[in-house]
Design a protein that fits this description.
The chain has 181 residues and is α/β, with parallel strands linked by helices. It has 4 helices and 10 strands.
Amino acid sequence: MESQNKVFIATSLDGYIADRSGGVDYLNTYPEINTIDTGYNDHMASIDALVMGRISFETVIGFDIPWPYNKPVYVLSNTLTQVPDKCGDQVTILSGTIPDVLKKIHSDGHTQLYIDGGKVIQDFLKHDLIDQMIITIIPVLLGGGIPLFSESEVSTKFECFKTQLFLDKLVQNHYRKAVNA
């Protein structure tokens, strides 16, 4: 099977994945979204490992919940040296260039990857290495914070192949990299 790098993420209406202090409380603007299937389970079934940055990793381990992933997680960090016990042996810390990191992950047999975290997504996009994106828009304006996208030397064309409306409030767009882009 051909390798795929996929994003599944939520943003504010103005394109931020976290507020100015790095918080993600805006995700609970409509808490009833947590009671319905928005495709996350299907997304998780389609991947065999996660790749995330240190900040996203620290955000997840800061939640007052058990470790939420049952698949290998690769954390990209130049500063992180150890993993909390609650993660078990599922977390590997990697550093290096995106191509080098991918080579290591692929050599471990993982080719269907969930790419998570603002900087990591931006770095993969800069290397033209995102194949699919599922972006759920939470209709709240944060006015600033951590953007999903950043300036890049690379322009990549995507096609929207599916749009869903949840709770008559949240819009989820499914994109794939355009063929012959």
